[in-house]
Structures are given as structure tokens and as C-alpha cells.
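Need C-alpha cells for this chain, all 758 residues.
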Amino acid sequence: MIKLATVFRDGMILQQGVVSRLYGFAPEKSRVHLKIERLALDEASALENAGRYGIIYEEDDVTERDGYFQIKLPVLEASFDKYKITVSTTEHEIILQDVLVGEVWLAAGQDNMAQKVRDSDVGKLLDKAINLENIRFFQMNENGLSDKTSMYSPYPLGEAADAFWLRGDQVHLVKDVSAVGFSFAWNISQAINVPIGIINAACPGTHIHSWLPREVLEKEPVMKSHVRELKLYRDDESWNQESVERTAREQEVDDSFARRRSARPQTAALLDGRQPDTQDPSPRIIPRPQVRRTLMHKRTVPLVRAFDPKNQPGAMFNHKLSPLVGLALRGILWLHGESDVDSPDYYNKALEQLVISFRELFVPADAKLHFIYAHLQSYLYRGLGPYDLAIFNEMLTSCHHSLDISCGLVTQYDLPLDYEKDESVCLALTPWAKLQLGARMSLIARGLCSEEGISTSAPEPVSLEQVGNKWMINFTSTAVQGGGLRMPAGETELRGFSVCGENRVFVPAKARILYGVRVLVWHEEIDRPESLIYGFDNFNSYANLYGSDGLPVVPFRLDLEESLFLNPTPWADMNSLEHFVWKKSIDEDEARVKKQDWPEREDLWQVWRGRGRMSALEARSVESWKGLVLEYRNADDRVLEFGPYLDYASAYPPLNLEPYSRMSMTLYNPDHREKRLILKIEDANGVKYEASPQIIKDDFRDQSLLWLLDEITVNRAQIVKLSFQLNDRGGTGKLNFQRIDFSGFDPSAEFALQDYGR
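Here are the C-alpha cells for all 758 residues:
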């Protein structure tokens, strides 16, 4: 009987342009014969190029004492021609049909890589599925378990659970593949026109240590200690046990596992396909699976510290990566970090070790494996501050320059956060938008594979100079070539930059793109700027600078000095009424969280008292301004009070206006009469303040109202409510609002600073 490694099955895709190996088992000391036949697409092709088809390669090997064999495969070129591979001995034969040669990528990570086509916007591509026969997906059970392997093994396995290859035109099956993987495959196949194979190895809710070989963790005391703190460390004696009785022996540094196991992942257990935790001397190969759908772990809530057996050290490595050892591929797509977002320094170290493991596991098609990964999207992580996610993403940015692998970073903070609505659980961790993410990864892949003029990573600043009170920023060359730096269509204001003076308080700054190649940043009240940041906070979708290839510029800061960052105030921009917000974080008791508390698009402004409503005023042209319009009635004899929501959890209340001494509102009065507007403010201690009425003139021009914040007798560092009371003797009318601005900033005034360093 002949048994091949888990990935060698009908319908597979082999990596082009590299010497790879086919390996498996046959009876001891038997001669194994390999034959590769190239089949023509049609009879005409076979007659026209007869020399290209038929048997193109044959090779033999003699099995070792344990029956193991490996046969070198020739370097094959990408083609839509199908191959037939025959592996035979004198008594047995296996024939692999419908084999293609093209580009092979591994898609791994957690929830956002595991998210399925059916649960995302990628489903629209299925309308084109009739043309996707040459895109193939290698699927295995999501959690790495199967009926025959129902518990996690502490050692590497040679089999992927219920694994099989499927074609992109098998719509009923493709709906359950990785949405990002499908989008990546479709986009890159359109660009390079060769078969694409995606090895899907993602699993939701996993920590990075579960993807590392156990021996790596045992040799890194700091990493091992971190996993212990998470209460997820298990050794051979406590493996798969939910609770572990801590003893003095357990608390000692135990290197016995490291002594027993090889430091390299290519141990005999990986190569020979055995399950090392069994005594059976013959290889155990899971039979060809029955196609079945695996359920996504929809209840993933990040940073909930509870034992899950798939998060034992090395569990994912043992079940999902080790069966692929020796596979030749072009690179790896990696979406991960949600479960480790509170530990950026640890993740940095673990990611370095993971890349080393990838290099040891796989055969690269180029000089080095390519590694493409992405920043985490905005999410209200329980227990994290307003800049902790930004710090984690900053660490991921630094990895682009430090990892010993050919890597590219993808940004996605501009993608919508809307998610699939479920009756019982909140799926905000996996936003609906995956089509664009996969497309961006495919673009980076083309750049890493040396396609001329294509970016190898998201745009980053490469140098800057200070000219007077302004910063001049230069960006990576691929970001400015072609169309140059840009903003989204229809937007005229460059947002996302903040600068600070000598007091280290960062305030929003003006910015302008210069000839598509540089960005000029300044603040009119800061003569000597000390530092600069761009898009550096957890919810930074307002940042709108893009490279010429459509990739958002990487958020950044210039230094790690103690500073004071002021939380964004999207309500003050008044360029839209709705905004994606979080009313509260999602905790572990997810099923009981009320739906009305789930993150959603909500109004930023509301009429609190009286008869009126707020709506968006869309710009009629580039020259005209966007804003909000207030329509009301009975404002002559009833109180009409309106204002912004300041208590959304994703705004990280309270509002801090202490660094400013002035607030102004730009508006337009379309009615032919005078009106009065009163500012009301309340702080966290319940102290309230009501300003003197401001007169809105009977004037068909934009006008500005000004309030002196220094006169307000509340704690301006802890404002919980800000509202406006309108009085109009005409009763019924409108007001158009353009924006609210804060000014009167003193760059020398001292404030309490915070340490935002890593």
C-alpha cells in the first residue's frame, strides 16, 4: 500500500519554478516509481505541440527501513495544462488527477483570515465562479481536529484533519473557504494569469504561541512565562487539562521537553506522517474525507482569559502547520494578533520565531519566502486604552523592517467596520469588508515578486525636514510614482496629522499634498513644532492619505517621548451625521449582551429637547462644503436643545478641551431673521455652565460664532456633555452647520503627560 503526504491529492496545485519533493510511505525496501504526464487542453494543442505532452519526467526511489520515501520533482512552469502523477510499486499504485502548476500561498492566522466567503463581501465574486476552475483551495478542518483525531496532540502530526482540494468553481464548497484567501487568489490570478493554490490553515481565537513549535517556547523563558500568565501553558503531564494544579516542580524551568525534541520542526514525526503519541509503528493517514462544512467559532471575544485546548503551546503548529512540512510555496498570508493585542513586545518576539519556523517548514519558490500581513482593524478591546491598538499596529510596522524574511505590510484602517448581523452573537471582530483586503494583499504579493512599479508594502514616511514652523515629509518611492500621493475622490481636506510644541501636547494640524510627492504639515499657533503623528489612535478611519496605488499610508509617530494625545472629535468635523461607534465593549458573556449595545453606525449629533432633527447636508460640488442641517419648529415657545454624543465608549470619554482657550462654530442661516444660540457644558463632577447667548445674524453668508473657553467654570479636562440651545422667534426654520474648531492653543503651557511608549 502507498500513502502520500497529506497535501498530495487530486486537484492539487504544485508551485512553479522550484525543485520540490513528493514524499510518503510504501512497503519497506520497495522501489517506488514516479511518473508525471502533461495532458493537453484539447486535441489541437496536442497535435501542434506534441513534444510538450505525454510523459515528461520519471524518477525512482527505494523506501527506507520504516517505508519512508521522497522523490525529487522537476522544476515545472506554470500552465493551465493538467498533469497526471502516478506513484507506483510492483504491487500498488496511486494516480493523482487534475494537477496544475502555478503559484501556491499559505493563508494562516485567526478570526479575520478564517472568516468565510459566505460571511463577507467576497461572496459577490461567486457570480464569476464559472471562470475559477484554476483557482484551488486546500481545506482542512478549522480547529485542526477530526473524528479520528478528536483531541489536540502535544506533538507534531503528519496529517491535516479531513483535508481536501477544491476548485474555485465549486460554489457550494467555496462559500466556506477563507474570504481573504479567495479575494487574494481571484485578484492575483486576474493579474498574472496562472493557476493559484491557497492552503487554508486559519483558526479563530488562537494565540500566536499555539502556532509555534513547543520546543521554541521551552527555550524562551520570557515567552514561556507570558503563556503561564495567560494560564494556557501545558506540559506533557497536564496536556488537554482545563485546570492545572501548580506545584513547586511545575514552577521550575522545565527543559526536559526541549531535551527530548529536536529544535527544528522537521523532525521524524513531521516527515513520516506518524502520530507520535501512538505506539503504532505504521503510518496513520486519515482517509480521503467526506466533504463537510466546519462551523466558525463565532463566539471569539479577544482578551478573555479562559482555557481553550487549541491555545495550548504548539497546538496549531502540531495540527495545521506540521502536516505541510516540505511544501514548496511562494509565500504566506498572515492575519493574526487580536488575541495578543495587549502584548506587543511579546508578539514581536513570537512573530520573529514564527517566521523562523516558516523558513524551516517550507521550500521557497524565490530566494526567500514572502510574508504578507496586515494591521489590525479598529475594535474596542476590553481593558485597552485609546492608543493601545495603535501601539500594537506600530509594532507590526516595525516588524516589516526587522523580520528576517521578504515581507510586506497592508493597512486597512479605511475599510468599513460593518459586520454580519447574527441573532445571538456580535461579530464585530470580523468586519464584512474582506474583498479589498485580499486585493491589497495580492498587490503587495506582485510587488514582492518583482513586478515593476508595484509596491512591496504600504506607503511609509522615509524622511522629513523642518522648514520654519512646518514639517516636510517624504514617502516611499512607490507611493509617489505614477499618480502620486492623494486623498479619496471628492475629499479636499487632508486629515490625520497632529503636531506638538514644547509642551508635548498633540493637536490636530493642517496638512497639504505638494505636487503628489510630499506632505506639508503645520499648526498656525505652534511656531516651533517638536514632533508629529499621523493617524495614531485606535479609531483612525478619519486619516485619509493614500499612495498612488490606493494603499493607505501607514500610521506613525516620530518618537516615544511622554506626551498628551487628544482623542479625535469626529463630531466636530460635521462632515457626516453617522459614524461607526461602540456604546460598550463586548465581554465574555457575549450571548447576553443586548443588541442595542453592539457597535453600529450611529448618529453623532442628536436633538435632546424640542422638535427638530439633524441630517447630513451633502456638498453639491467640490467648492461647496458638506455639513449638517438642523430643521426645527416651535423654537419660539419651546426649548430646542441639540448636541453631540460624547459618551460613546469608542470616544474614550470624557472629552478633554483643557489645552484650548477658544471654540468656534461655522454655520449658515438660510432664514431671513436673527436667532440666538446658547452653549451649555457639563463636567464629570456634575458641574454645569451656560454661556451668554450668541447672536446668529440675519445674513446670507457663512458666519462664525466664538466662545472663550477660559471663561467656562467647569473642569475642561473632563467634559461629559456639550450642547446648544436655540431660540428662534420665527418658530420654524433651518440652520446649516459646517464645522466646530478649537483654537487658542498655548504650546508652552504645561499639562500632565503620559507614557505611550512600548
